[in-house]
Structures are given as C-alpha cells and as structure tokens.
User: Fold this.
Amino acid sequence: MPLHFNSRIIDEFRTRDGRLSGPFEGWVLLLLTTTGARSGTPHTAPLGFVEDGGRLLVVGSAGGSDRHPDWYRNLLVNPTVTVETGTETWQATAVAATGDERDELFAKVVAAEPGYAEYQKKTDRILPVVALYRIPEDDYTPPNRLDALADELVRIHDWLRSELTAIGEGLGARTVPGLTVELRRHCLTFCSAMAVHHGGEDAGLFPYLAREFPEKAEVFGRLQAEHGTVSRILDALQVLLARLDDAEPGSLHAEFDALRAELDAHFAYEEEQVVPLLRGLAPA
Assistant:
C-alpha cells in the first residue's frame, strides 16, 4: 500500500481502537511493527490476518506485486515484532513458514480469505506466510537477537538444502509426467528464498556483525563475494529452467551440480564462521 494510504489507516486504527470507517469499515486488521533491516528504525504496516490456534498468520502479498514487502524483509533479520489488534498491543516472534508448511498455511489463509489466491496468480513470486507467536508478558525478557538469528540461520540453511535435494531428484527423473511443473515450483521457491536470505544478510546481518567483530572483515568479504557467485549461478539455472523441455540434460545437471557444490561450501563456511558469533561464543 502507498505510505499515505497506510498512514491514514494506522492513525484511524489507533484512535478508534482498531475500528475503521468509510470505505474501510468492517475491515479486520492488525498493525505489525518491525525493525528496519537496514535502518534499525521501527516501521508499521496494517495487515489482514487469519487466526490459527494460538497464532496469527499474515501473508506478504503486497497486492500481488513481484517484490516482497519491506515488513517481510525486516522480520527476516529482526524476528521480534510488535502486534496491535486495536484493543491490545503485544510482542511476538515472527516465523516465516517454508516448504510444505508454507503451502499448508497458505491453503488455510485462502480458505478463510480467498482474495490471497488472486494475489498469488498475479506473480511468480511465492507469497510468504508468516506466523506470529505471542510472547507471554510474564515470560518476556529482551530477546537475545543474535542467538535467535543463529537458530534461524541454521533452520533456513537446512530447508534450502532440502529444496536442493528435491531439485536434484527432479532432474534425475524429469521424464515423469507432471514432474516438470513440480521441478519448476521447487526451483522458483528456492531461487526466491535464496534472494531474500542473501538480501537480508547483505543489508542487515553482515554489516551489523562487521561492526561488532571488525577482526572478521575478511570473513564477511568472502561471504558477500560468494553471494555474488551464487546469484550468477541462480540466474543461469533459471535461464535453463525456462527452456527445460529443450535443454540438454548434461548442461542442466552441470549447472545444478555447480550450484549445489557452491552452496554446500557456502553454507558450511557461513555456519562455521557466523553461527559462533551470533551465539556469542567468539570474543568480541
């Protein structure tokens, strides 16, 4: 939504305990405040949501645009957020669903709010689904952001590894009817996730750690250079996938093998060097 449009909704939401008037009357929204991945300043966005047990689900639809909304990019770097429902304000941990879980949650959202299916049809981008888990006030202490990011980093790497395995299996059996569509889905999901993952690291995580650990400048320089290499390989892979039916199997496998080898080495090096810093095991 345009900023001025958001501001009007936010102002009325806060002055009328979450109730909106005029063309927005009857809308059920929450306000999500994230911490800017680059700026470190708070940013608030009005979002629709779906209740799912003890959590709330929000979708990074951005109206079906081809770019993830800023609030989604922010929470990938800073997963502790503030939620306003009109009558309550509370802290939450935002967890972006991946793989099969994302698909299952998106189906739940669409069952409750069919308009999100129309947003998905407008773009090849996989609309992210984020679960908001309330942090009980009695248990709330300022989060160890670095330790939380260490867990998130390893979790994302493990999911990306599983997507790579699925792509490899698809390439090995690409003649099976219907597999081409599934293979493209895995590849689109994987490439989109890699772009967001590396974008968040380059924009927020690595600059922050470089300031905290200046003696590790060489490590972050190498990791960012590897991001450039991975990006070029992803571009080449997507070009091949665009002509999957006509591509030589050997060229497709060679490109994929190069990507997987590069990413295996990249993930291992990043976990070896960055995770100890996030967990506070290395001296500042």
